[in-house]
Design brief:
375 residues; alpha/beta; seven-stranded mixed sheet; five-stranded parallel sheet
Length: 375
């Protein structure tokens, strides 16, 4: 695979080792996977947040002050995430935080976030994350109650497939997505012939692939958390002769997954909250990101870019850095066009209600259509 030119831990070191900025700044923390198995995703996350930060500061900052980014490594683990949040919450002057994209990490840190009472943007898509009586989390992506409806509808009504196998990570994201997909398929009169879980960071998916093959499924629906797992599963799926259609969650179209899987992902469909050709905003962002980093962007960078801009807008609208004021500013954002879609926040913290349907061919992601929901 092609490794990115700057590792997350190196980027983190550059940010934390930079000369001290003036005290008259607005500090925003970011919990990032700088080390561990998801460190490559952490590069994209930092890149997206940093690109937004630079644009905001170049335009004059917020409330007459420059934004300052304070990163903290979570080591790609749940305990590391809780520790990273605790460190940022304990640092003087942090007014809000951009959390991780992993639902399982947000689930682990949610009590810490609730206790701290500091507005936190999250990228996890497990629907339950905004329904646990935590008024300080705000989602910068659509949740999986929407992705599951798009996956089911596209697979049944467009691809005309009714014999489903579902494969999912057993973490919060994968289990939540599997449950949502089962419910969406049920409304279409379908019960999967196979529901198969696996543990994150598996190195051998042979038992899972053989179970899919034995089931006789003509379509696979997946909720896979980590991009490297997607790459391994895709290769072994094709090596063992499974040719069923496949519609999966956004990890299928991450840069890491596509580079690892290579031709094994050809013809696969995915839902994606970010794809370069979905809107004028996503096209402009893609051009800026590639110019800045000489890399193609993916969801890890796009959601962090939007999260930073949402926080800046909320602080500006509130004319304050007080937690309650920022919270009110975020919930007040309605009809705002970001890279991920058009945001209209509800009082639970959800801002997006739609997904793109895309197809991978020869290492390229092709946009098919965007589907939005009202509820």
């Amino acid at each position: 695979m092609r490794f990115v030119s700057l590792t997350a831990v190196a980027a983190l070191a550059i940010l934390t080792a930079a000369p001290a900025v003036a005290q008259d700044t607005i500090k925003i923390g970011i919990v990032v996977e700088a080390t561990g198995p998801n460190a490559e995703a952490g590069v994209f996350t930092l890149n997206g947040a940093k690109l937004a930060l630079e644009e905001i500061n170049a335009a004059g900052g917020v409330l007459g002050k420059r934004l300052e980014l304070k990163p903290e490594d979570n080591q790609s683990t749940n305990p590391g995430t809780v520790l990273a949040f605790s460190k940022l919450f304990g640092e003087k002057g942090i007014v809000s935080i951009i959390g991780p994209i992993r639902s399982t990490q947000i689930q682990a840190a949610s009590p810490t976030i609730a206790k701290a009472g500091i507005p936190t943007m999250i990228g996890g898509t497990d629907p339950s994350l905004t329904k646990v009586n935590n008024r300080w989390v705000f989602r910068g992506r659509p949740n999986d109650s929407y992705s599951s409806r798009v996956i089911a509808d596209f697979g049944v009504n467009t691809l005309k497939k009714r014999k489903w196998a579902t494969v999912h990570s057993t973490d919060a994201f994968g289990s939540g997505g599997m449950n949502a997909l089962a419910a969406s398929l049920k409304t279409l009169g379908i019960t999967p012939v196979l529901v198969q879980g696996y543990t994150n960071n598996s190195q051998d998916f042979t038992p899972v692939v053989l179970a899919v093959k034995k089931s006789g499924a003509d379509i696979i629906g997946t909720y896979m958390t980590n991009s490297p797992d997607v790459g391994i599963f895709a290769k072994q799926l094709r090596q063992l002769g499974v040719s069923a259609d496949w519609v999966g969650s956004p990890s299928l179209v991450s840069v890491t997954a596509m580079e690892l899987a290579g031709p094994a992902l050809n013809g696969v469909h995915s839902v994606a909250d970010f794809t370069p050709d979905a809107s004028a905003e996503s096209k402009a962002y893609t051009a800026k990101y590639k110019a800045a980093y000489k890399l193609d962007p993916d969801v890890y960078s796009s959601w962090a870019y939007d999260a930073m801009r949402i926080l800046a807008r909320a602080i500006g609208d509130a004319k304050s850095t007080e937690p309650e004021a920022i919270r009110k500013g975020i919930v007040g954002i309605q009809g705002w066009k970001g890279v991920e879609g058009t945001y209209s926040f509800d009082d639970k913290g959800d801002g997006l209600r739609g997904y793109n349907v895309v197809r991978i061919d020869n290492g390229k992601v092709g946009f098919i259509k965007h589907i939005d929901f009202k509820d």
